[in-house]
Design a protein that fits this description.
- It is built from 17 helices and 14 strands.
- It has about 400 residues and is α/β, with parallel strands linked by helices.
- Strand 9, helix 10 and strand 10 form a beta-alpha-beta unit.
- The strands form three sheets. It has a six-stranded parallel beta sheet.
- The protein is globular and about 60 Å long.
- The chain starts with a strand and ends with a strand.
- The chain has three domains: about 120 residues, Rossmann fold (3-Layer(aba) Sandwich); about 170 residues, NAD(P)-binding Rossmann-like Domain (Rossmann fold); about 90 residues, Erythronate-4-phosphate dehydrogenase, dimerisation domain (Ribosomal Protein S8, Chain: A, domain 1, 2-Layer Sandwich), CATH 3.30.1370.
- Helix 15 runs antiparallel to helix 16.
Length: about 400
């Protein structure tokens, strides 16, 4: 078995080396020629896998170690008899921590609190659910727009209809914070390309916050520039952009906070993605699966410890704690600096984006961190534990 893989896939050798000859390449070097003799192709979301890439190859299986599939030409796979797998939910914990920290950062600037904050969550899949869990933990009120899930749940009489509050699209947009967690869908009854466009900006409050960690094209950037021009635009936290990596620097300039598509880049999330694709791979080819260590044992990452001397957990302390885990503030500042004050003027945005994304070191998740908090009250301890933190008095 000949396997060609993106060299940035974490844990690649560990999982796949016993099942074939693994050849690793940078994403930009994965082309029709380099995969011609491959039986299996493993990628992340930076590689578009379609007929142009695969038509003249031996590839029988494609694995994407990511949540999304918009970079995979699934109709072509079906036509060509190519099996495929991806990793739904692999980085949901990391993305939801990113969203929580972003919401808190905005609250601190706007002098708001999480208690009573109205949040519209558009898309209630793996990530959306964890976002809701984290925000409601601190008293936010979450309103869900997910028409497909709502129809399916009603048809199956699922209890989810009672557990969360489903609302219309317009109602979700009229909240204080709107967080996007949808795949990029180009057609069908509920397309998501330019879901947030002219009409959406007319409905939103100008003093609200919009967070996009889904796909760049879910947001119509031209419509956003128009909303900015007439003073009707919400603040935006963006981790994804139209045309990545060749993005429009104007979007970075307008963002409250911007990062280079790294919201899900945690050590354990990336490893989990590889493991999920590996599970599909061995099942498809009928291989016996070797015994592997658990993710924590496999990564052998030392537990990070943070000291918190306060008795109470207000949002300033929570933000500081989260940023020690994620380092997202530093990432956002350096990303914006690259575009607004380039060290080498004239360098194109594509290169800046790729460098910033490549140089971001995967981060810990809360579950890999311990808080030393001898004075913290019981309610705050419970909240930290529900976020995943370990705790020691």
């Amino acid at each position: 078995m000949k396997i060609v893989a993106d060299q940035s896939i974490q844990g690649l050798e560990y999982y796949f080396k016993s099942y074939g000859d693994v050849r690793t390449l940078p994403d930009y070097a994965i082309n029709a020629n380099s995969v011609k003799e491959a039986d299996c192709l493993l990628v992340r979301s930076t590689v578009s896998v379609n007929a142009e890439l695969l038509a003249a190859t031996n590839v029988r299986f494609v694995g994407s170690c990511t949540i999304g599939t918009d970079h995979l030409d699934l109709p072509f796979f079906k036509q060509a008899g190519i099996a495929w797998g991806h990793a739904p939910g692999c980085n949901a914990q990391a993305v939801s921590e990113y969203v929580l920290q972003g919401v808190i950062a905005w609250c601190l600037v706007e002098n708001r609190n999480l208690e009573g904050l109205r949040v519209g969550v558009i898309g209630y899949g793996h990530v959306g659910r964890q976002v809701v869990e984290k925000l409601t933990l601190f008293g936010a009120e979450c309103y869900i727009y997910d028409p497909l899930l709502r129809v399916r749940a009603a048809a199956n009489k699922e209890n989810i209809l009672k557990a969360v509050q489903f609302v219309s699209f317009e109602e979700a947009l009229q909240t204080d914070v709107i967080s996007l967690h949808v795949p990029l869908v180009l057609n069908g009854p509920y397309p998501t390309k330019h879901l947030i466009g002219v009409r959406a900006f007319e409905v939103m409050q100008a003093n609200s916050l919009l967070i996009n960690t889904s796909r760049g094209a879910v947001l119509d950037e031209q419509a956003y520039y128009q909303a900015v021009h007439v003073g009707m635009a919400p603040k935006i936290i963006a981790d994804v952009f139209v045309g990545e990596p060749d993005i429009n620097p104007k979007m970075i300039e307008y963002c409250f906070s911007a990062t280079p598509h790294i919201a899900g880049h945690s050590y354990i999330g990336k490893e989990r993605g590889t493991q999920q694709v590996f599970d599909v791979f061995v099942k498809h080819f009928g291989y016996e699966c070797a015994h592997f260590e658990g993710l924590d044992s496999r990564l052998k990452l030392p537990t990070k410890e943070f000291l918190l001397m306060s008795q109470y957990l207000d949002i300033e302390r929570l933000y500081g704690l989260l940023d020690q885990v994620t380092r997202l503030q530093e990432c956002a500042q350096s990303f914006k600096q690259c575009f607004m004050h380039p060290v080498q003027p004239g360098t194109d945005s594509r290169e800046y984006f790729q460098v910033c994304r490549r140089e971001y070191v995967p981060r810990y998740e809360c579950s890999q961190c311990r808080v030393l908090a001898p004075n913290l009250d019981d309610k705050a301890i419970l909240k930290l534990r529900n976020l995943g933190f370990q705790w020691t008095a």
